[in-house]
Specification:
The chain is an alpha/beta fold and 262 residues long. Helices cover 32% and strands 23% of the residues. It has a five-stranded mixed beta sheet with strand order 5-1-6-13-7, sandwiched between helices. β2 and β3 form a beta hairpin. The longest helix has 16 residues. The relative contact order is 0.21.
């Protein structure tokens, strides 16, 4: 499949028109992130930051025509730094959870972490399975990591499948490569990175989905700003939608996720 044919997710309502914000009072946006979570945010050998989140932040500043800095911090210091006004925004693949909402305000999600099925190539699962419904997978051996949201989802929506649980992702993926299960089910982002890596050895492909039910898989990933900082949140929301409309978001998504997770 050519890169131009890969689906690029959209999290912005095309019918919703956001007004261009007045950024005359916005002189500088101080972004913070982590530096050890490739391909989202990581440090190059020379110490400079890059990654999907980092490039999104830079593109936002360019869209808003506002200067910005992007500094690395330890994960446990990110929320306090923004809450205490020592930084303006955190862009570090932070989930929009009730706990995080108690401390920060968030933009609309700029990506989500869907669940996906993965199957072996050449065994009938090499094409997408939009028909992956309970009836289709009844009696099939489906692997999933134990005691998590993905197992709970399978039990709720695919009760007729023969669900086999594994203690780790490594054990789960080995079960698929060993043909102990027909499909595995899990986090689409981590599975996409595995499929694009050397460990998978081009063994497998996505099969069906994505599945994004928020009850199981959350409300997505947003940019966190200080509580009550409405002007910055609205400016970032406007700029995120503009990045999607102009194709900038698609370019960055395809650059960092040649095997897309949607």
């Amino acid at each position: 499949m050519a890169a131009d044919d890969l689906p690029v997710p959209s999290f912005w309502d095309p019918q919703r028109r956001l007004e261009k914000p007045d950024t005359s009072a916005l002189r500088l946006i101080r972004f913070i992130t982590e530096d050890d979570y490739p391909p989202f945010n990581f440090a190059l050998p020379d110490g400079s930051l890059t990654g999907f989140n980092v490039e999104i932040a830079r593109a936002l500043c360019e869209e808003l025509k506002v200067a910005c800095t992007i500094q690395p911090r330890r994960w446990d210091t990110l929320v306090p730094a923004v809450a205490e006004a020592r930084a303006d925004a955190v862009i570090a693949s932070m989930a929009i959870t009730p706990e995080n909402r108690n401390q920060l305000d968030f933009t609309s999600p700029y990506y989500k972490t869907p669940a996906r099925f993965v199957g072996l190539r050449g065994t009938g699962q090499s094409t997408p399975l939009p028909e992956a419904i309970p009836e289709t997978l009844t009696g099939e051996n489906i692997g999933v990591q134990a005691n998590g949201a993905h197992e709970a989802f399978l039990h709720a929506y695919f009760p007729g499948a023969a669900i086999r649980t594994y203690p780790t992702q490594a054990a789960l993926r080995l079960a698929l490569k060993s043909r102990d299960v027909k499909l595995i089910f899990g986090d689409g982002v981590s599975l996409a990175l595995w499929l694009n890596g050397t460990d998978a050895a081009d063994c497998c492909v996505f099969a069906g989905g994505p599945y994004t039910e928020s009850r199981y898989f959350g409300d997505g990933i947003g940019i966190g700003v200080r509580k009550g900082n409405v002007d910055l949140r609205r400016a970032l929301d406007y700029a995120l939608k503009r990045l999607y409309e102009r194709g900038v978001y698609a370019d960055l998504y395809l650059k960092y996720f040649p095997v897309g997770f949607f």
